[in-house]
Amino acid sequence: xxxxxxxxxxxxxxxxxxxxxxxxxxxxxxxxxxxxxxxxxxxxxxxxxxxxxxxxxxxxxxxxxxxxxxxxxxxxxxxxxxxxxxxxxxxxxxxxxxxxxxxxxxxxxxxxxxxxxxxxxxxxxxxxxxxxxxxxxxxxxxxxxxxxxxxxxxxxxxxxxxxxxxxxxxxxxxxxxxxxxxxxxxxxxxxxxxxxxxxxxxxxxxxxxxxxxxxxxxxxxxxxxxxxxxxxxxxxxxxxxxxxxxxxxxxxxxxxxxxxxxxxxxxxxxxxxxxxxxxxxxxxxxxxxxxxxxxxxxxxxxxxxxx
Amino acid sequence: xxxxxxxxxxxxxxxxxxxxxxxxxxxxxxxxxxxxxxxxxxxxxxxxxxxxxxxxxxxxxxxxxxxxxxxxxxxxxxxxxxxxxxxxxxxxxxxxxxxxxxxxxxxxxxxxxxxxxxxxxxxxxxxxxxxxxxxxxxxxxxxxxxxxxxxxxxxxxxxxxxxxxxxxxxxxxxxxxxxxxxxxxxxxxxxxxxxxxxxxxxxxxxxxxxxxxxxxxxxxxxxxxxxxxxxxxxxxxxxxxxxxxxxxxxx
Lengths: 307, 251
Fold this sequence. Notes:
The structure holds two protein chains of two kinds. Chain A has ten helices and 14 strands. The relative contact order of chain A is 0.14. By secondary structure, chain A is α/β, with parallel strands linked by helices. A six-stranded mixed sheet of chain A has the order 6-7-8-3-9-10, with helices on both faces. In chain A, strands 2-1-4-5 form a four-stranded antiparallel sheet. Chain A is elongated, with a radius of gyration of 24 Å. Chain B is an all-alpha fold. At the A-B interface, helix 2 and helix 3 of A face helix 1 and helix 4 of B.
């Protein structure tokens, strides 16, 4: 059985009396595209920082590709690349210098590594900025450099902490193309993002953190199935005036000839609702149903939203 | 080894890129001291037998500049990258505690030696300063600036704001370096001040360094060297322990 990319056992972290992580157990298999979601303050960044060795856990263990992040930190850090959430840079150096220095920290030099760095510059569209000082780059460019820095040592596991926060649509698309390519090439990817559609489009498995605990850990499909609500939109021949009393608590929106209703799966029946509308004098012209998306599931799990 | 060499090289590049501020400015400052003090104390009797006051000042100013610049190099590099956040790139790497320590201290020593060399080269245009014991010069230079480079690591890690570091520099390093016999001989002080001065480890750096030039000192050069090495070892051990524990680095 292959060694898991990430193993976390009973991980706890407290800052004084504030408990940020309450005993997290998690395993990410090699080659997965894994999503780590949760509202602000859920403990995502703390968890990532512990894996990266930037924060010491109060209790528990974490391993990257079988290497303990504390006792075997040299190996664990060689197998891990982290793209930090905040755009940080060394103002003394150019992009090319930064990448050469970063590779050197990992003990890498020589033409083969130089070729890889040039490849990274090309893939992240940084070639024409390679000799420009970091200070002169735009925010989006600096973020690409952060990604290149995280990959200079070809890590098996790549953690991206909100890599597209504040990034324009075009750059975001190109970044995801690149990350997908890395995943296809066999890298394990762990992603935290506030854009839930990104997690839905990219991740195979997702963990949702809430107040330092794992609120859900499942495949994307299984999580989506957990949603207890779906949306029913009914178009009527008559303008939608008064919604029948029996349906009022389900109404999300009324516009012109349309009414959008939130249905509780397994409780509300579509034929029953249509019948209620017909009895109230409406002629049904069209109807659509929409399953919940990850955002819906996320809100239900993290805020206990019920529709 | 490549990891250490890279961090060392990066730290050298960091001060090389702002040479005007990191090497030339301290050389000019030391020379200003030299000009002002030599003008003020012209004709004053020799402090050490056969050594004129201006020549006497040169080694002290060299060592004082080494002390201040070694401290400034490691401490400013650390606090800048801590506050800007780019220290993360070093912390994410597999560099060991010792590699981290050695690279920062090594770069501090190189900067200090370059500043000292700059002061010496310009000073000998105006005054003769012989070199009697070059090995002592080198040893006091390396261990003295090494100790202050390590102290810079401690201050850089401990400080969370620039004003805290400035406090460390202005209330610890500056007074200790000014009151370490740069401008006077220990013998010229009243007994109480002589005793108090002997508690200042920086005094032995300057006295021993001066011995390297003139072959004369207030304290035995071997005793001074032993004290400087012990001081350097103690400060280094503290800095290494802080880095190893991740104190204010890996919270």
